[in-house]
Write a structure and sequence with these properties.
Number of helices: 6
Order of helices and strands: HHHHHH
Helix content: 55-70%
Strand content: under 5%
Shape: elongated
Distance between the termini: 57 Å
Number of domains: 2
Amino acid sequence: MKPQIELIRSYLVRHQFLVAMALVVGITAILTTLSMVLYIQSGASGLDLSRPGFVGSRNDLQKDASTEFESTGELSEADIKTFQKLYQDQRTILNSLSDFDDDAISDESLGLNFDNQATDAPQ
């Protein structure tokens, strides 16, 4: 038994680069398989709009009407007032939530609406 172990050890030492590459490929395959299993079992695959079957749903989505500020150029008084109003609105929403209330992490307070997305998703 000992000569076989020495034979295997000498083979691994002589071909350590190939063994390392085989281990890397094996570990990658295992982790990729595990992540895909978790992705499917968790239900995240049903919410993924980047999949080919959801082209129509992607086109139907509307972007939020958000205010964008220029990253270069002059900063006007109107920009400052707009930012302060947006900031104050968000601060009011956050202050209305208590720290330990279940509503603080509800879908509505987080701005998530899964009811509309579930009806648009093809089966």
